[in-house]
Amino acid sequence: MRPAWYRGRIACMEISLATVLALALCGRQAHWVLGARQLPTEAHAWVWTENGVFGLSGRDRPDPRRPWAGALAAPPVPKGRRT
């Protein structure tokens, strides 16, 4: 839902970044991930935590034929811990 006073768009980038910031304010660590998949090409943003991935559901859920590939994570996700 977008507040009536907000003129911008609210999509996966805004929601995932707000989630990471809210978790940081609560003392929890989360990673903001920007990624893409092919055929057709799509871009998406999601949140990665030690407890799992958030923001990959509905039409953005993982598909073994077209997996999401993270291109950038902030802060970087430790090697061997990626999902």
Strand order of the largest sheet: 3-2-1-4
Radius of gyration: 14 Å
The N- and C-terminal alpha carbons lie at a distance of 29 Å
Number of helical regions = 1
**Average pLDDT level:** 83
- Class inferred from helices and paired strands: alpha+beta
Strand-residue proportion: 25-35%
- Shape field: globular
Poorly predicted sequence stretches spanning 5 or more consecutive residues = none
Number of strands: 4
Query: How much helix, percentage-wise, in residues?
Result: 10-25%
Q: Secondary-structure element order, as H and E?
A: HEEEE
Task: Please describe the biggest sheet, giving its number of strands, its sense, and whether it closes into a barrel.
Answer: 4 strands, antiparallel
Structure report:
The chain contains 1 helix and 4 strands. With 83 residues, it is α+β, with helices and mostly antiparallel strands. The longest helix has 14 residues, at 12-25. It starts with 11 loop residues before the first helix and ends in a 9-residue tail after the last strand. The mean pLDDT is 83.
What is shown here, in short?
With 83 residues, the protein is α+β, with helices and mostly antiparallel strands.
List keywords for this structure.
83 residues, alpha+beta, 4-stranded antiparallel beta sheet, 1 helix, 4 strands
